[in-house]
Amino acid sequence: MKEIELSDPYITPYRGIYAICDSKNEYAEIIEHSNCYGGAAWSKFHYSHSPLIQNTRSIGNMVRYTVKTGTSALELKPSTAAAGIESVIVEGDEVHITYAGLGGGGVGATKCRAFAEGVLRCNYTESGGGRAAKGTIVVPRRERVLIGIDDTDTKEEGATWTLTHNMANALDCNESIYLSHSLVQLFPVSARTQNCVSTVLEFGCVDENAKQELLESVKAALLKYSVSDETGMVVLSDYDAKKINEYSTKCRSGELTKEYALQYAKDNGIDIWLDGNGIIGALASLAWFAQPDDSVKLKAQIE
C-alpha cells in the first residue's frame, strides 16, 4: 500500500483561466484550462445554463465560454443548475469574473479557480459541504492573435504542424498564452508538398508589446527552422475571423493564385510577415482557429 499525503484534498486548481475580449468589451471568451477534465465537464454542463453564456465548447482540456459581458442573477438548483458564471466585467486592462456554486460546485467556483495560473487577485467565500459559495477572480484582458503558417517543409524533410506547435509551445508565456493549434486541410493543388495542410496558431496577448514580441519571435523561428524558401506567415488580430471565411472556402474548394491571396489580405487588413507562396494556405487557415476537429475535414463548415 502506498500512503499519500495531500496538502489540501479539496482543491484542484485550474492550470489557467484566460479572458479574450472584443474591441468594444461587449463580448468575451472565458477559456478555462483544467487539470481535471471530469470536473471541467461538470462545470461546462451547469454553466451552460447561465444567462450570460452564449456558447460553450471544449477543445482538449480547455473549456471555452462565449459570454455577454455584464451581470445576471443566477438561480442555482442542485443537480440541474448547481453552478454558473454570475458576472463578467471589463475594467481597463483587467477582467473580473464572478462564479457561484452549490456544494462541490462551490469549491470549483472559489478556490479551484482562484488558484489558477495567471489570476491577478481574488476573493471568495467559504465553500464545500452543503453550502452555496461565490468567488471573483481578476485576470488580464487579452486580445486574440491568429498566426497562419504554411509551406515550411519540402518533399524531402519537415512538417509544418510539428514545427508550428513546437515554436508556439516554446513561446507560451503569461503575456502571450498559447491557446490552440489547428491543422487546416486545403484543396490538394499540384504544387503541394504532400497532404496540402496549413496551420493556424491562436494566442491571447495582454498588450501590443507582447503581441509584437511574439510575432517577431515566430518570424525569426520560421526563418531559422523552415526548410522551404516559400514559407508564408500572415497575422490577424481580431476577436473573430469572419472576414476570412469567403477566402478560406475558396481555398478549400479549388486552386488560388498568390496574387489573389495578397490582394485579399490587403483588402481585409491581414498583416503579411512572410510572403512566400505559402501565404495562400496560411491565409485560409485563419478562419479555422480553435476548430481542430473540423478543420481537418475538407468539406466541413466554418463556425
Automatic annotation (TrEMBL):
Gene3D superfamilies: 3.30.70.2200. Transmembrane segments: none annotated. Residues 147-270 form the TiaS-like TCKD domain. Pfam families: TiaS_TCKD. This is DUF1743 domain-containing protein. It comes from Methanolobus vulcani.
